[in-house]
User: Fold Transcriptional regulator MntR from Maribacter aquimaris.
Amino acid sequence: MASNIKENYIKALFYLHQKNEEISLSALGEELQVSKPTANDMIKKLKAEGIVVSEKYKPIRITAEGKRQAASVIRKHRLSEMFLAQIMKFGWEEVHEIAEELEHIKTEKLFDRMDDILGFPTTDPHGSPIPDKDGNFNKPDYKRLSQLPVGSVVIIKALRESSADFLQYLNKKSIKLNTKITIEHIERFDGSYTVSYDGISGVVLGKSVCDRLLVKLV
Amino acid sequence: MASNIKENYIKALFYLHQKNEEISLSALGEELQVSKPTANDMIKKLKAEGIVVSEKYKPIRITAEGKRQAASVIRKHRLSEMFLAQIMKFGWEEVHEIAEELEHIKTEKLFDRMDDILGFPTTDPHGSPIPDKDGNFNKPDYKRLSQLPVGSVVIIKALRESSADFLQYLNKKSIKLNTKITIEHIERFDGSYTVSYDGISGVVLGKSVCDRLLVKLV
DNA sequence: TTAATTTGTTAGACTTATCTAACTTTATAT
DNA sequence: ATATAAAGTTAGATAAGTCTAACAAATTAA
Ligand SMILES: [Mn+2]
Ligand SMILES: [Mn+2]
Ligand SMILES: [Mn+2]
Ligand SMILES: [Mn+2]
Assistant:
């Protein structure tokens, strides 16, 4: 059984692999805030366990087994977030921190029961998909709000980034998942959008905000 | 911040101290299934942190600070058990194992929220008291069923031992907390009790069972 | 195509938690 | 009071996870 620490490496490897099939030691060290020799040592252990393939001076690749193990941790994380939000009434800006701890709990039936109580949800409170136990999950092709033209009517479906700061900003603006937004104006100069939602019009969202909102066209 | 492992030592020290003010290294090692040198090393560290007092060849005593830290872990454990049982519908024989993991979660507000959702319970699903954050908890003076005479009418309030095996035995007998029992007969030869409850009479409970049931006289 | 920069590796050290074997001190029993 | 047993300590070793300093390889830029 992998330790908490190993699980965090596996999860990081999975995230990095989603951005780029080939993973660099530097990126891994950066992601986990450890030195390159530390990351290198761990890669040797994970290689011995069949979780990555790696050869001297060559980029690292995660194996099918590695993906399976990563999905298991991510499933625990996202089910926990959903349970904390829906059942325990935590805000979506609070759940990630707690889920970072809960995801390492070994007893599977805790998460199976969460899943059951929640009615087998397919996404977490930030719109990210919850993998099933075999590691499969939907990857719907949402667009960034910042990619869409004036006049588009969209529904917010997920976030590209879910830092507490960003979530608190969205709270302040009363923007939630499934909020229906109409794009009224795009300011060419700075990429900011003027939008309307919930019957309020003229709300200005900066470029970096629109870049983080994943939406579906209505 | 204490690691999981240290927290387990602190909890063990607290349990041992409840049986016997003075704690021996052997008992500590036995409790945690580690060797005496291992326990000894940890005691040196805990002494440096002010959690125990201990001098060479003298028995170990837990400090007020040690008790406070133990109570914090026990509170997390017992609130978790109660949450798992009441809200997540796990059986009382299932909750301990999961709570052994949950008790090490750092984020206090998770447990505060459990407490809130549960309506500030004073005991766990096995009748053990839940300490408050300052480490105070009720220690009601229940009697063992095995100490009471024929004719007594009692209510089961807690268990002296909560192994999954014992709890499954109680499930089979439909005995729960708050079950009202009447003692019909005591067999002198083997100390077994014949009792009635829930309208069923003539149920025989062995000595070891009666020894584990903590009851209040009606 | 050489030089500079980035990336990866090695070597050596530290911390925490664990062990066994051997020894010392304290307690118990004859 | 002495011998035996139990409890506690020391010494030395191991494994996991981390670091820094120094060096080697690969990539990128000039
Ligand atoms: Mn998260
Ligand atoms: Mn999330
Ligand atoms: Mn328990
Ligand atoms: Mn309990």
